[in-house]
Structures are given as structure tokens and as C-alpha cells.
């Protein structure tokens, strides 16, 4: 029986701690997310301001464009080398292994295999460099958009939490009669007077618990609905390709 009582007591203690954490952790997390997201937003856009509202905002700068062209040329040269080697293998009727590799049983086969492996390595290395640059403008845009998205959602989450907290205090602590208030100066004075009577550190835990849960859900919905707020400021850039690499130029 003693063990059963202890277990019940432990469970109650855990639930109480969880209850208290949910009450206080929602506004704290929202505040931390807001500050962190804003700092990240301004850090990632410090070289971009003022934003033009064009693809240039997150595009490669002149130095990076030259780097892209350098690796693009290496990729193309080795791509054509590989095609030529494959054609030569067919013309010379050199056998191919089951795994598709060139047979090295002949002298010509050994040379072509070595050339093929070298070209493949250079082509793959160039592609690794190109891959990052091809999607770099989009990755930059996504990073800034995410910071802006979380900033907006957490800001409105804090506003809703603050308004909800004041409403609960006025309703259940001060017990203001909302039905008697109207759109006039006297009602406004009465409302301010009621706010001044609030004991801010005195609250009903259950109402605050429900408020915290509600605000967390609303904040998540805001983040979901406004998932691409940066689109209102500057467009999502395309992938970097040969036909567009020189059309735009970024600042970093």
C-alpha cells in the first residue's frame, strides 16, 4: 500500500510540474524564438538591405559567378570527354565488363579506362562544387524566409498571449462587466481603471494553462498559414543555370 501511495504521489508531482511548465514555458519560448529569429533575419540580410525585390537580392555575386562558370566549364569538358571515350570504345570494339566498366585486357582499353576514370573524377568534383552554387540563392532565400516566418508567428503569439492574459485577469480577478462597456470615453476610462487593479502575479492556473495551449496552437497555425512571408518582399529565386547566371548579380 505504501508503494502504491508513493507512486500516486510521484505521478501527481510530475503532473504538477508539467502543468506549471506549460503555463510559463509558452511565453518564454515565444520570446526566445522572436529574439533569435529577428537577430538571424537582420544578420542574414545585413549585406542585402535595402532589398530590391528582384532575383538579385539572393543571387551570386560577381566572384561567385566566376567560380560557377569555372566549375561549369570543367563539368562540360569532362562530360564531352566521357561521351567521346564511350564512342571510341565502341569504334575500337573494346570489350566492356559486366558492371559497365571498360575492360583493361588490351593496351587501348587500359588507356581509355584510365582516361575515363580521370574524367569521371573531375566531372564529379566539379559537380559537387556546382551543386552548392546552383541552389545557393534558393537556400539563402529559404533561410531568411524561415527567420521572418518565425518572427511574425512568435510576435503575434506573444501579442495574443498578452491580450488573453489581460482579458482573463479582468474577467476572473477584477470581474469587469464587459456587457456594460460601450464605445465611449467613460467605458475606456473604466477599462483602464480595471487594468490598474490587476494583481499581475496572481492568476488562475487552469485558465492560464488553457490560454498557453491555445496560444501555442494559434502560433503554429500562423506559422503554417504565413509560411512564405518573404514572397511579399522579394521573389523566390530560380536555380542557377547557364542561361540565367549572368542575368542577375547579388551583393554577397
Please tell me about this protein's structure.
The chain has 252 residues and is mainly α. The protein has one domain (32-232). The chain is built from six helices and no strands. It has helices at 2-44, 62-91, 107-134, 136-172, 185-196, 205-225. α1 (2-44) runs parallel beside α6, α2 (62-91) runs antiparallel to α3 (107-134) and α4 (136-172) packs antiparallel against α6 (205-225). The N and C termini lie far apart (70 Å). Keywords: Membrane, Transmembrane, Transmembrane helix. The chain crosses the membrane at residues 12-39, 148-168, 206-226.
β-strand amount = under 5%
Query: Low-confidence spans: pLDDT under 50, at least 5 residues?
Result: 1-9
Number of individual domains = 1
- Helical content band: 55-70%
Shape: elongated
> How many runs of DSSP E, i.e. beta strands?
0
What is the alpha-carbon Rg in Å?
32 Å
The helix-and-strand class reads mainly alpha
Number of helices: 6
Order of helices and strands: HHHHHH
Describe this structure in a few short sentences.
The chain contains six helices and no strands.
Helices, strands, pairings?
Blueprint: H1 2-44, H2 62-91, H3 107-134, H4 136-172, H5 185-196, H6 205-225
Helix pairs in contact: 1-4, 1-6, 2-3, 4-6
Keywords for this structure?
252 residues, mainly alpha, 68% helix, disordered N terminus
